[in-house]
Every structure is written in structure tokens, then in C-alpha cells.
Write a structure and sequence with these properties.
The complex is a heterodimer of chains A (about 110) and B (about 120). Helix content of chain A is about 0%, strand content about 55%. Chain A contains no helices and 11 strands. In chain A, strands 2, 4, 5, 9, 10 and 11 form a 6-stranded mixed β-sheet that branches. In chain A, strands 1-3-8-7-6 form a 5-stranded antiparallel β-sheet, with no helix packed on it. The radius of gyration of chain A is 13 Å and the shape is globular. Helices cover about 0% and strands about 50% of the residues of chain B. Chain B starts with a strand and ends with a strand. Classes of the chains: A mainly beta (about 110), B mainly beta (about 120). Chains A and B meet through strand 5 and strand 10 of A and strand 4, strand 5, strand 9 and strand 10 of B.
């Protein structure tokens, strides 16, 4: 069975904190990897794609370790607006079903 | 920015009734998908659709479900005889399907409540 496992959370952090989420996946043939953000009762929204070389988008840094089948997301200088559920998502290939983790809930407080 | 749209935003129905959920994918996308999310659970894949036929489906997508692209813009999910356990958020998504890093974009969802 192809699975994506994430830290269960919730993570409760103060504004300005750095927080890291981890994820592992079971299908070694997976081709692309993503972090989506989901607000309560809303649709998943793409936060960033994850590349083997690591990639950064402002305060967000994603890393992929194919050998360990491990994906991470680092959020620096957390804002109140970062409060959401972060979904680790794996795609076996173009046009195929996305496989979602259960998500990790982040709550940033002032 | 182009986006996936879905109607209705909320559908309430009686058990055993048929429902049709509607989606308008992003116009230049080739692949269309339906996912569902039962409250408190993870997003689950139902079906994907390409070139006017189902390309992949999950074990959830049984004979009660069907999909259709009735015209050049709409993509629908029909549930023939709803059950209580069909209550969930149903998300439509679309993607170009051309690149290895193909990205799926999601609509705002339809909340289906089966009474």
C-alpha cells in the first residue's frame, strides 16, 4: 500500500518561531513531491513543490531526500497567518492520483 | 489567475437520492480529478479523467459513482444513490499533465451532506 506519513501534530508555536515538519513516503518510484496548505474546511492550496536540491520560497524551505524517502518543510519567523494544516503530498507521475498525508496542524499564537 | 470552480458549494440530500456535483477545470488543463475528504480525515483520491475517459480510479469509486464531461468546460461527478457515509467535502482538481512535476490545482469544494 502506498502511504505518506506525517508528524501528527498539532504544533503550537509563538509568532517568530521556527518550526519544521517531516514526512516519509513509501513508494520509491514517486516522481514529484509537494507541500499543500489547507485552511479549515477549505481546499488544499499548493504551498510549494519539493526538489531534490532543496528549494526556498521566502520564509519556507523544503527538502527532499530520495534515498531516505523523506520530505521536510521549514517555516521561519512564523506569522499568525501561517496557522493551518500542512499536507505532505506525493505524486507517482503526471496525471496520476496524488497521495496525501493526514496533515500536520500548526497554530501560531501572539 | 485561472482557477477551478465548483458548484454547488453545499448540497444537502436524502439518503438514496442522486446528486450531481459540477466542476469547471482550468481551461488549458488536460487531466481532471475528483477527491473527497471526510471530516477530520485525509484527502482521498476518487478518479482521474483524461481524453474523455477514466484514466485511474480508486476502490472508493464503485458503481454508485460516475463522471462525465458533458461539454467543453464542465466536469461532473454523479452519485446515483447516496449513502450516509458519502457525506464529505468533494474537491475537483485539474492539471496540465505534461511535466514530471505536474501540479494539480483544486477547486473550493462541494460540501455534501446526506441525511
Amino acid at each position: 500500500r502506498k502511504e505518506v506519513e506525517q508528524d501528527p501534530g498539532p504544533f503550537n508555536v509563538p509568532e517568530g518561531a521556527t518550526v519544521a515538519f517531516n514526512c516519509t513516503y513509501s513508494n520509491s518510484a514517486s516522481q514529484s513531491f509537494f507541500w499543500y496548505r489547507q485552511d479549515c474546511r477549505k481546499e488544499p492550496k499548493l504551498l510549494m513543490s519539493v526538489y531534490s536540491s532543496g528549494n526556498e520560497d521566502g520564509r519556507f524551505t523544503a527538502q527532499l531526500n530520495r534515498a531516505s524517502q523523506y520530505i521536510s518543510l521549514l517555516i521561519r519567523d512564523s506569522k499568525l497567518s501561517d496557522s493551518a494544516t500542512y499536507l505532505c503530498v506525493v505524486n507517482p507521475g503526471p496525471g496520476t492520483a496524488l497521495i496525501f498525508g493526514k496533515g500536520t496542524t500548526l497554530s501560531v499564537s501572539s | 489567475e485561472p482557477e477551478v470552480t465548483q458548484t454547488p458549494s453545499h448540497q444537502v440530500t436524502q439518503m438514496g437520492q442522486e446528486v450531481i456535483l459540477r466542476c469547471v477545470p482550468i481551461s488549458n488543463h488536460l487531466y481532471f480529478y475528483w477527491y473527497r475528504q471526510i471530516l477530520g480525515q485525509k484527502v482521498e483520491f476518487l478518479v482521474s479523467f483524461y481524453n474523455n475517459e477514466i484514466s485511474e480510479k480508486s476502490e472508493i469509486f464503485d458503481d454508485q459513482f460516475s463522471v462525465e464531461r458533458p461539454d467543453g468546460s464542465n466536469f461532473t461527478l454523479k452519485i446515483r444513490s447516496t449513502k450516509l457515509e458519502d457525506s464529505a467535502m468533494y474537491f475537483c482538481a485539474s492539471s496540465e499533465g505534461l511535466l514530471r512535476t505536474d501540479t494539480q490545482y483544486f477547486g473550493p469544494g462541494t460540501r455534501l451532506t446526506v441525511l
